[in-house]
Amino acid sequence: MPPIPALAKIGVEMINVGKGDAILVELRDQQNNGITFVVDGGCAEQAANVISFLQTHHASNRKVFVSTHSDNDHIATMADAIRAVGATDLILNDPRDFDPQGTVLTRARTELDADKRDLLTSAFERIDEVRNAATAVGARHQAIFASANPILTWGSWNVYIVGPTSAHFNEVWYTVGGLSGLYVDDDPNAVANLVSAGRSIIDDGVDTSGMNNQSIMLLIEGPGQKVLLTGDAGMRAIREASAIKDLRSLSLLDVPHHGSRRNVDSEIIDFLKPAVSFISSPGNDKHPRRAVVRKLQKAGSRVYSTCRTGTTSIYHHQNLLRAGYSPIAPWELIP
Fold it and tell me: Would residue 275 count as lying in a domain?
């Protein structure tokens, strides 16, 4: 491997927001100009926490907010954060932008039960709040789908959107019957049944929800680093992304959906083969699943989870060490 230039600077920080996701990616160019991608932010009560990190470490940087999807534990802080620190850009895929006749809401009345319609209504309300905040600070809103071309080059770094594909997005939102899989309920007996049958609980082939699979996924590539941020994307979305860009041998993987078993399987983990894996999770039976952690470890990954480190954040960097930060130990090997 050629030597890594000293000016190739990147920092990826996963803030401990309990149940939720909040990731700050800082890139610097050869003139040391900084840009920060604010990828989700956790639940509303975490707003002050996220804003503090932004004000402390990213005050002078250009700020691009990325809402991977509209689940409360990902998007709820973003409007407050935008109002507090400003933004130049907002990347957010709103299905209503491509639906002038309002067919999504019309179909929701027949394809979703009352509870799930309420979830969708709340999701659109959260989207509206974030978009209004972005408009108020003069940020440019973009809907972006997967492409092999970078959305931005910053010094040595290329930033790509690798999910969702426009075809997958259209299938979920604009195909008759597509909304029925937007929200799914996990079978409470599924794990017990798999264990009793002697099968791996991460290899039963059951994918996550349509909403999760619509998560915006970012790939950041540059000298010495290949970082994949996944939101709550599932197996189909990751496989589609791998057909667009080479996702093998990642330097860092943001493990999707807080380490859920519905988002990765053994084949995907072996394919991605991340050197380091970050998991944002509250630390319950489902998030993260020990079977997911174990498989990542067996694939050679050093796993770090916000539920285990006892720190306010987990930080991965290259040439961008911060004062006061010190090494932490990865999750001990699970037999």
Answer: yes
The pair of structure tokens assigned to 302 is: 């050093």
Residue 326 in domain? no
pLDDT-based confidence at 2, cuts 50/70/90? low
pLDDT digit string, tens, across residues 45-97:
999 999 999 999 999 999 999 999 999 999 999 999 999 999 999 999 999 99
Dump pLDDT digits (tens) for 213-246. Answer: 999 999 999 999 999 999 999 999 999 999 999 9
CATH code assigned at 191: 3.60.15.10
SS3 303: strand
Residue 16 lies in a domain: yes
- What are the structure tokens assigned to 164, written together? 């969702």
21, 285 contact by CB (below 8 A): no
Which pTM was predicted? 0.95
335 within some domain = no
Q: 273-303: string of b/e by CB count within 10 Å (b at 16+)?
A: ebbbbbbbbbeeeebbbebbbbbbbebebeb
Nearest partner of 79 among 15, 125, 122, 111, judged by Cα: 125
The Cα–Cα gap between 115 and 292 comes to 30
The dihedrals phi and psi of 293, each to the nearest 5 degrees, come to -60, -45
**What is Dmax (Cα atoms) for the chain?**
59
